[in-house]
Design goal:
205 residues, mainly alpha, Tetracycline Repressor, domain 2
């Protein structure tokens, strides 16, 4: 008999909380069932298996992260928006390590990904922020990948205690954002955007 009060949403939220507490790689259906005081079979009415549970946690976390970023960048542009985006990303990842790990670790089934809009929304938020730097494809994708790599690498090193120098980690983070802003403002030539600008300049001279 299914325990009263259990729903797919409640089970997913509990799994995300458990991931933050013990690490995403340590969540199991059995551990989650114990947290509810039920047998494993009670949860299988709400999740198919461990992979399904982990996919649900990843989608929940990706949606939460997108909401944080959207609220942070609203009404901002340029460096202010990029810094707000970065800070929302970092704050969420450090406050919810298990949830964040889920967004990085889970290989979503293509069918699951097709039914969800949360990952596409994150890409849209990233591109909207980057368009203020007058970037177009393929530079939008290239710059988005650079920012994600920079943010992720910094966050993982910070969370693992990888910065041993006496300089404050926050100070280095702020300077890193200054550097990323400078790079985005001076994105290397060779993109369609730059080619169009060069042609326009040649026509004026």
């Amino acid at each position: 008999m299914v325990r009263a009060g259990l729903t797919s949403e409640r089970v997913t939220k509990a799994a995300a909380d458990l991931a933050d507490a013990v690490g995403f790689e340590n969540i199991t259906v059995s551990a989650l069932a114990r947290s509810f005081g039920v047998k494993d079979a009670s949860l299988y009415s709400h999740v198919r298996n461990l992979q399904d549970l982990r996919e649900r946690v990843a989608l929940l976390a990706a949606g939460e992260l997108a909401d944080r970023i959207a609220a942070a960048v609203a009404g901002r542009s340029g460096k202010e928006a990029m810094a707000a985006f970065a800070n929302a990303y970092r704050d969420y990842a450090l406050a919810h390590p298990g949830r964040y790990a889920a967004t990085q670790a889970v290989q979503l089934d293509p069918a699951v990904l097709a039914r969800s809009t949360v990952y596409a929304r994150t890409v849209e938020l990233t591109h909207a922020m980057l368009r203020a730097y007058r970037l177009v494809e393929p530079d939008l994708t290239d710059a988005g990948r650079l920012l994600r790599s920079a943010f992720h690498g910094y966050i993982v090193l910070e969370a693992n205690g990888g910065f041993s120098h006496s300089r404050a980690v926050q100070s280095s983070w702020e300077r890193a954002l200054d550097g990323l802003h400078f790079l985005l403002e001076n994105w290397p030539a060779g993109s369609p955007r730059h080619a169009a600008e060069e042609e326009a300049e040649e026509e004026r001279t």
